[in-house]
Specification:
The complex is a heterodimer. By secondary structure, chain A is an alpha+beta fold. Chain A is built from eight helices and eleven strands. Chain A has a four-stranded antiparallel β-sheet, covered by helices on one side. In chain A, strand 6 and strand 7 form a beta hairpin. In chain A, helix 4 runs antiparallel to helix 5 and helix 6 runs antiparallel to helix 7. By secondary structure, chain B is α+β, with helices and mostly antiparallel strands. Chain B folds into two domains: about 120 residues, Roll (Ubiquitin Conjugating Enzyme); about 70 residues, no CATH class. Chain B is elongated. The chains are: A alpha+beta, B alpha+beta. Chains A and B meet through helix 1 of A and helix 1 of B. Chain B: Keywords: ATP-binding, Nucleotide-binding, Transferase, Ubl conjugation pathway. Chain B: Its EC number is 2.3.2.23.
Chain lengths: ~325, ~200
């Protein structure tokens, strides 16, 4: 919709008036053949109802509308108009093409956002500033946040509940599987596959570790150290069916022939670099899983994998 | 009322008031309420027509969607014309329906209505009875239209014969306007009009 004609200084030529809204052309477009010009929003609204020129009824479509000639745009740009906020005290008179820029910064705009200086610091439209009450506003804010918090808490409780339920269900399924596995060989094959997949999936969640000092390896870790590592493994999602076996394999008495004594370890030391090691989160220890290390010889590997605890040197 | 409609009507109202037709007393427009949604129009009957000398009042309702939709116009003053209902004043004119264009104004609408009074379109009638008479008995139509203009629109030509016939029916207890409608519809045949009124 165009600009109200009374906002302009002096007379405005009829040619610059939109025949639809009778305001001064805003962002004008013209019809293709007859070249009648209209505000963009006006002609688009009209064409959406009837595909004709509103002045002479020639058939036109939306895509045929064209920008108006430069001379017309220049004539419009040169017109002097008062500010939209004149009724709020702005006395500026501007060239039409500078109106938009002025409006963005006009300090008389009643909707201009200002920060409250009484202390709450909320940003509010200028015209609402005089009725503004910091305590009331902040209270409302707290209330909405409290509501949100309550909603979140409720959601959390619900999620927790479902999680517990699901865990229970999963455990039932596992027990069921175990029972099936014992009674049915085909089932055992499937279950084994599922377990192998589970280990693979878990392995993929772990970060690759780099051992900088193989000499720091503790081949006979004590009970306390073992318990600590076991807890960490369990916490980072180690599948239950391999947890005990893995922990057994953290001591040299269960290591493969290539590692089981100081002597063999020294012989095979150059092979260490070939191990694919996974980090045990937060610990100076690595996991060498069988599934990650199928390229290693049986001399150096055992099922389901090794746990190597170090004094230092893990990155 | 939408901003655009109000802006347009304000401007058009001024346009009519300043127009040369107003100077010649051919058209007139007045505000009915403050919000420009309803206006009262007036057109003078064009010369060399049965409507000459009469002034016809129009009701103009401006829709919220003006000027994308036409104003709703009807005759308040009763008129005998093939394209205007003698009962409701409803007008059959293309520009007030599907031929409306957004650049048309109150002034062009009033002038178009005046033109309609000069050139009836009996093949696209609003009032079938009037249109039939217009086509079959042009002279009777002319006399009837003159008479209606005289009675309702302050036209100058008095038809003594018609007035007497109506008077007779009124004396029989018939409402004056009903009597006029019946007589007009039956080419001022007393017998048939009476028959229709008392059947």
């Amino acid at each position: 919709m165009g600009f109200e004609i009374t906002r302009f200084q002096g007379d405005v030529d009829e040619e610059l008036v939109c025949p639809i809204c009778s305001g001064v052309l805003e962002d004008p477009l013209q019809a293709p053949v007859c070249e009648h010009a209209f505000c963009r929003s006006c002609i688009q609204e009209w064409i959406s109802r009837q595909p004709t020129c509103p002045v002479d009824r020639q058939h036109i479509t939306s895509v045929q509308l064209r920008p108006v000639p430069r001379i017309l745009r220049n004539l419009l740009a040169r017109l002097c108009i008062n500010c939209d906020n004149a009724e709020y005290g702005c006395t500026r008179v501007l060239k039409l093409d500078t109106l938009t820029t002025h409006l963005e910064e006009c300090e008389h705009n009643p909707k201009r956002l200002l920060p409250c200086e009484q202390g709450c610091g909320l940003v509010i439209p200028k015209d609402e500033l005089k009725d503004h009450n910091c305590i009331k506003e902040l209270r409302a804010l707290i209330q909405t946040q409290q509501h949100k918090l309550n909603d979140f808490q409720q959601e959390l409780a619900e999620q927790r509940f479902t999680m517990v339920e699901q865990k229970r269900e999963l455990q039932l399924l596992k027990d069921f599987m175990k029972a099936m596995r014992i009674s049915n060989p085909a089932m055992r094959a499937i279950a084994d596959q599922m377990e192998r997949d589970e280990v693979l999936r878990w392995s993929n969640t772990l970060i690759r570790a780099r051992v900088t000092r193989w000499g720091g390896m503790i081949s006979t870790p004590d009970e306390i150290l073992q318990r600590m590592i076991k807890r960490t493994l369990s916490e980072c999602g180690c599948p239950a069916h391999i947890l005990d076996d893995l922990m057994e394999n953290c001591h040299e008495r269960r290591w493969p022939p290539g590692l089981c004594s100081l002597e063999t370890r020294q012989t095979n030391r150059r092979l260490y670099e070939n191990y694919v090691c996974k980090r045990i989160p937060g610990k100076q220890a690595v996991l060498v899983l069988h599934c990650d290390n199928e390229h290693m010889s049986e001399e150096m590997m055992v099922e389901p994998g090794l746990v190597m605890i170090f004094a230092h040197g893990i990155e | 009322m939408a901003n655009i409609a109000a802006q347009r009507i304000k401007r058009e109202f001024k346009e009519v008031i300043k127009s040369e037709e107003v100077a010649k007393c051919a058209i007139k427009v007045e505000l009915v309420n403050d919000n420009y949604t309803e206006l009262k129009g007036e057109i003078a009957g064009p010369p060399d027509t049965p409507y000459e000398g009469g002034n016809f009042i129009l009701e103009i309702k401006v829709p919220e969607t003006y000027p994308f939709n036409p104003p709703k116009v009807r005759f308040i003053t009763k008129i005998w014309h093939p394209n205007i209902s003698s009962v409701t004043g409803a007008i059959c004119l293309d520009i007030l329906k599907d031929q409306w264009a957004a650049a048309m104004t109150l002034r062009t609408v009033l002038l178009s209505l005046q033109a309609l009074l000069s050139a009836a379109e009996p093949d696209d009638p609003q009032d079938a009875v009037v249109a039939k008479q217009f086509k079959e008995n042009a002279e009777m139509f002319h006399l009837t239209a003159c008479h209606w203009t005289n009675i309702y629109a302050g036209g100058p030509s008095v038809n003594k014969d018609f007035d007497d016939k109506i008077k007779k029916l009124v004396e029989m207890g018939v409402d004056e306007h009903e009597a006029r409608v019946a007589l007009s519809s039956y080419n001022w045949d007393m017998e048939r009009a009476t028959e229709q009124l008392f059947s």
